Amino acid sequence: MARLNWYDLYRAPIPETALLVSDVQGDARYKTTTINGEERKYKRGYTQSEYTPWVSGMKHDKEVILGDYISDYMNRADVREAMHIPDYVPTWQMCSDTIDYHLQDEGSVCIYDVL
Question: Does 79 fall in a domain?
Answer without folding.
Answer: yes
